Amino acid sequence: MSQDMTPGEAVPTNTETPPANDSPAPTARPDSAPEEQPPAEPALPPLTPQEFRIYNRLAEQMDYFHEHFRQMYNTLQTACATNRRPAGMTLKQFIEEGLRLARYLEMHHSIEETHLYPLLGRKMPEFRATTSAPPGGGKEGGGGGGGGRKGKAEECELLRQHKVIHDGMDETADYLRRCRDRECELELGVLKEKMESWGDVLLQHLDQEVRDLGAEKMRKHFTVQEMKAIPM
């Protein structure tokens, strides 16, 4: 204690005010504000059982066809995975099963792209081809089915899947035809390799197309009367 201070005298404290901070407070950046969320779609009233059947008709009919394609594809894929043809199926029958799948898919997708997709695409972007390539566009080297579909520059996801499927499927079918004509022997390992480029896309496509034709999606774009008028 200092000699100049008397007992009981309070010890002085530092009362000096600290210097003010001249730096301005940080302001929030405009881009840090939370993004505005799009307004939620109004809830639609429940469909009656009859309305659901009408709106879900295309999905049910499409899935009927697709189930046949799944079974045919699985026959080929299982044989490739196990390196063994199905019991009771001859080599000729096995090759014809693969060629039949290629023909059926070619016909099925041709009908979709010519009739169904343009009709649905008027209201549904899921089925819309947005931009067409100039005349003459197509698959290099010619040959193979589906030449018309190759020329689209920008397409919806389903049409892009068609292209991947048919590019790979055409090569697979060419191989099976050469095996059928005895130009080469069928090797399941080779067939498996050729199917890998398009098999997963095919299975995804078969499921996705049915979902896009489901009742809850169709009711957003079409009336009951319009649904009844869609041929299938």
Automatic annotation (TrEMBL):
* Biased amino acid composition, Pro residues: 36-48
Record region (Disordered): 1-48, 127-152
- The molecule here is called Hemerythrin-like domain-containing protein
Q: Which residues form the Hemerythrin-like domain?
A: 59-130
Question: Spans of biased composition, class Gly residues?
Answer: 135-148
Top-level taxon in the UniProt lineage: Eukaryota
The record's annotation in InterPro entries points to: Dimeric_xanthone_biosynth, Hemerythrin-like
